[in-house]
Structures are given as C-alpha cells and as structure tokens.
Amino acid sequence: MHNDTNSDEYWEEIFDSVDMDFLPIEYLDMVVVKFLDGKVWEIDIGRSKKLNENTEDVLEKFFEEYEDSIDTIDFRLNTKKLINDVGKRTRKFLKTNK
Fold it and tell me: Is the separation of the CB atoms in 74 and 29 below 8 Å?
C-alpha cells in the first residue's frame, strides 16, 4: 500500500476494497438512472437533501415504482467528503491504537 494518502493510486486501492452493499446517502452527489427506453434521469442528491429531509425514502419509493423500467443506476460519490471522512477516521484509529 502507498504511504502517500494524497495519491490517486492509494485512494483507488481503498475504493476497490469498499463493500458497496450499504452506501450512506451522505456520500452521494448524484444518481444517474438509465431507463430501458433510453431516457436518462439525473437526480441531484445534494439539491434533493436541501428540499426534502428524507431523501433516502424518496429514492427508495422511486426505485420501487420504476424498477421494471430501469436499465442501470449509476451512483456518483462525493469523493472529497468520503476521502476526508476516511482520512479522519484512519488517523483517529491509528492514534488511539498505538
């Protein structure tokens, strides 16, 4: 593993090992939904969170309603926030476990 936490290679290794079964909404910037008929919807999560307190429920209902017509879903991460939070937690863990 690379020691330089600012290198792209370091973060690529981290992201490759992340289990995406559970993805906190706080790390999403956008959801791009491609439908079977070719239409593409871009859902701005940041804007949605400002307009609606329960974005997670809205997304869940959306996916349930349109599940039969959705081809693919692309989750775009807020990588700056994710990198910052992982870095903070790693430093805290290393500091307390010396």
Answer: no
Question: Do 45 and 55 meet the contact criterion of CB atoms below 8 Å apart?
Answer: yes
Tell me if residue 3 falls in helix, strand or coil.
coil
Give percent above pLDDT 70 in the chain.
70
* Structural domain boundaries, residue 84: 22-96
54 inside domain = yes
Between these two residues, 56 and 66, which has the higher pLDDT value? Answer: 66
Is 4 inside any structural domain? Answer: no
Residue 25 C-beta-side C-alpha neighbours within 13 Å: 17
- Any domain includes 64: yes
CB atoms within 10 A of CB 2: 12
